[in-house]
């Protein structure tokens, strides 16, 4: 077990399946359970610290050992604590689910939320069905820690499903078109077709990807400005995006698409030279383009966050000076 000592109200997580994902829960005490949970819901085994979690069977209260243990190998993972109000650079570098930019509630309110949800029959029924998108262990722990609800209304869900179907259909056709372009280009390279044709085809594919991402970001920016009353909640839920983040994401998308454009062309030539299979140029082009896109986005994001932190620190280092000499009746203070 790690050196971390769990405390009441902590949002804990443990890694699962060779760090492929995390399992989350909220720390409560034995007294919290005895004083707030109805008798028939109190677990048989109680320790000083217990974990309220959500799993495929619904809500449950387990011991720290049970929370740490992964079956069927009965391997005990180290316990980690999710960080709230994380530094933007740390948030960017760490895996999703380990830290958040959102402010954390006081521990009493976090425990109160966990006990209220677990005690309520309707809430237990809601959380009984595990959903990878809307109802999972991380969202349960996040809701307890922030009181920000993820549950959507039926009309919103219907609208999301319509948008999702349109988006997936568009992405599928775009991907199919890109695959066709890459395959044709691979054949053209083998046949000695001019380099200009390869440039145009890959450029069109990169432009399509950038346009789709820009459209999604613009919709999120529209939500940010249009729904002012729910702005903070929409930002937390990632439905909206601030103007500063919008600009950063657009720059990252642009450089990512440019990098993917260049690397996919390089992949075609590498596949054509090093491998004899007719499919090799297409596979190498996809792989190189993906690596180029991810790498460029990651590096551009690091640079953008560093620049934003520098300007932010400069703006916060304000010097105070008097308009008039100290001691005058009309002393006023202004920031330089």
TrEMBL record:
> Where are its TM segments located?
204-227, 258-280, 286-305
Ordered alphabetically, the record's keywords are: Membrane, Transmembrane, Transmembrane helix
Q: Which domain of life is it from?
A: Eukaryota
Annotated LRAT domain ranges read 6-147
Instruction: Write down the InterPro entries for this protein, in alphabetical order.
Output: LRAT_dom
Keyword match Transit peptide: no
State the PANTHER family in the record: OS05G0310600 PROTEIN, OS09G0526800 PROTEIN
What is the protein's name according to its record? LRAT domain-containing protein
* Species name: Adineta steineri
């Amino acid at each position: 077990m790690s050196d971390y000592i769990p405390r009441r109200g902590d949002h804990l997580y443990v890694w699962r399946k060779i760090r492929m994902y995390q399992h989350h829960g909220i720390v409560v005490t034995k007294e919290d359970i005895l004083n707030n949970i109805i008798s028939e819901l109190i677990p048989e085994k109680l320790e000083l610290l217990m974990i309220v979690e959500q799993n495929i069977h619904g809500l449950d209260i387990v011991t720290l050992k049970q929370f740490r243990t992964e079956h069927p190998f009965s391997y005990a993972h180290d316990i980690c604590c999710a960080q709230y109000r994380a530094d933007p650079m740390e948030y960017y570098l760490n895996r999703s689910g380990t830290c958040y930019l959102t402010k954390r509630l006081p521990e009493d309110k976090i425990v109160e939320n966990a006990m209220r949800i677990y005690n309520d029959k309707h809430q237990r029924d809601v959380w009984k069905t595990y959903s990878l998108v809307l109802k999972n262990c991380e969202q349960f722990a996040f809701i307890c820690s922030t009181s920000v609800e993820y549950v959507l209304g039926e009309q919103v869900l219907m609208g999301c499903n319509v948008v999702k179907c349109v988006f997936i259909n568009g992405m599928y056709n775009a991907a199919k078109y890109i695959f066709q372009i890459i395959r044709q280009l691979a054949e053209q390279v083998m046949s000695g077709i001019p380099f200009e044709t390869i440039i145009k085809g890959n450029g069109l594919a990169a432009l399509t990807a950038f346009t789709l991402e820009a459209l999604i970001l613009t919709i999120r920016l529209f939500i940010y400005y249009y729904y002012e009353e729910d702005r903070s909640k929409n930002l937390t839920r990632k439905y909206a995006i601030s103007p500063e983040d919008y600009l950063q994401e657009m720059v990252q998308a642009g450089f990512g698409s440019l990098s993917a454009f260049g690397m996919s062309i390089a992949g075609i030539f590498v596949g054509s030279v090093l491998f004899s299979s007719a499919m090799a140029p297409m596979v190498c082009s996809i792989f190189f383009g993906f690596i180029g896109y991810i790498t460029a986005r990651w590096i551009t994001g690091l640079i953008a966050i560093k620049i934003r932190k520098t300007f932010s620190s400069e703006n916060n280092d304000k010097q105070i000076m008097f308009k008039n000499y100290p001691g005058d009746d009309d002393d006023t203070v202004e920031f330089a």
